[in-house]
Design goal:
By secondary structure, this protein is of the alpha/beta class. The chain is 43% helix and 25% strand. It is globular, with a radius of gyration of 15 Å.
Length: 174
């Protein structure tokens, strides 16, 4: 077990539990690794709702409602797509916090514009009143990580979890 990732997941779980809310994931290049880290923590069913592993275009569209026009205009690995993934995970779960991840882990698939190691992240937080979502806010970023496929994916998982922690710390009403 990766102690750093476990510690991050444990901290996220404590923050979610203290707020009485659930989290969900929408993952592509990390293949469910963020969800795995969250569920490695005992008691995670109190604050982890579900994980969507959407590795291809059709899954992103069918499971999360990512519009084809977004993917056509920006690509599967883009800020617009991960934002739609995170927002789709909010809509398709009982979570108040979600993270979306899509990237190019390698060894191939990169381009000059999006080299291997490029990963986009989006975090969405929403207030839920009696199960109804209200006032969602989505933030996103792009990172470029170094290393082989495993290293890129591991760094992406850590960044995804760190982003959830930052979001929870900065959103007092959640």
């Amino acid at each position: 077990m990766d102690k750093t990732l476990y510690s991050l997941a444990e901290s996220v779980g404590q923050a979610l539990n203290s707020k009485g809310i659930f989290m969900a994931t929408a993952e592509s290049c990390t293949g469910g690794w963020v969800a795995k880290c969250m569920t490695d923590v005992p008691g995670s069913s109190a604050w982890f709702d579900c994980g969507f592993t959407v590795y291809n275009r059709e899954a992103k569209q069918q499971m999360l409602g990512v519009p084809a026009a977004v993917i056509d205009a920006h690509g599967e690995v883009s800020e617009a797509t991960v934002e739609a993934m995170a927002e789709g995970a909010i809509a398709q779960s009982r979570a108040a916090v979600t993270v979306g991840v899509s990237g190019i882990a390698g060894p191939g698939g990169g381009s000059e514009e999006k080299p291997v190691g490029t990963v986009y992240f989006a975090w969405c937080i929403a207030d839920r009143v009696a199960g109804v979502m209200r006032n969602s806010k989505t933030t996103s970023c792009r990172e470029v990580f170094e290393g082989d496929r495993e290293a890129v994916r591991r760094q992406a998982v850590a960044r995804a979890l760190q982003g959830v922690l930052e979001l929870l710390e900065n959103h007092a009403s959640a």
